[in-house]
From TrEMBL:
A single GO cellular-component term on record: membrane
Keywords, comma-separated and alphabetical: Membrane, Transmembrane, Transmembrane helix
Domain of life: Bacteria
Organism this protein belongs to: Aquisalinus flavus
Full protein name: Uncharacterized protein
InterPro entries in the cross-refs: FxsA
Keyword presence, Ribonucleoprotein: no
Transmembrane segments: 27-47, 68-88, 94-113
Length: 132
C-alpha cells in the first residue's frame, strides 16, 4: 500500500504537467491558467462553506449529546481535500472536488470503515502502545 502511494506521489506531478501542456496546446495557456486559478477559488469557497456546515453540525450534535461521528468524518475528508484543491492541476482538482461531494465522501467513508472492520474481524489489526 505504501509502495502504491509512493508511486502515485511520484507519477502525479508528471501526469499533471502532461495534462496541463495538452490543455494549453488545445485551449491556450491563458485559458488554462485562468481555469486553474478559477478551480482553486471556487474549490476554496465551497470548502469554506462545507467546513462551516460540518462545524455547525458538530456543535449541534455535541449540544444534543448525540454521536458527532458524521461531522468529524466530513471534516477529515474536507481536510484531505484541501491539498488537492490548492495544488495546481486538473487531476488534483478533480480529486478535491469529488471529496467535496457529500455522497462521495460518505461512500468512501463506508468503504474505508468496512475494510477496517473486516481486518479487525480477521485479526489482522495490531494496536501498538508506546511509552514516551
Amino acid at each position: 500500500m505504501i509502495l502504491y502511494l509512493f508511486l502515485l506521489l511520484i507519477a502525479l506531478p508528471f501526469i499533471e504537467i502532461y495534462i496541463l501542456i495538452k490543455a494549453g496546446s488545445v485551449f491556450g495557456a491563458g485559458w488554462v491558467i485562468l481555469a486553474t486559478i478559477a478551480t482553486a477559488v471556487i474549490g476554496g469557497a465551497i470548502l469554506r462553506w462545507q467546513g462551516l456546515q460540518a462545524l455547525n453540525r458538530l456543535r449541534s450534535d455535541m449540544q444534543q449529546q448525540t454521536s458527532p461521528v458524521q461531522p468529524v468524518v466530513d471534516g477529515v475528508f474536507l481536510l484531505i481535500a484541501v491539498p488537492f484543491l490548492i495544488t495546481p492541476g486538473f487531476v488534483t482538482d478533480t480529486i478535491g472536488f469529488l471529496l467535496l461531494i457529500p455522497f462521495v465522501r460518505h461512500a468512501i467513508a463506508r468503504a474505508f470503515l468496512k475494510k477496517i472492520k473486516g481486518s479487525i474481524d480477521r485479526g489482522e489489526t495490531r494496536i501498538m502502545f508506546r511509552r514516551f
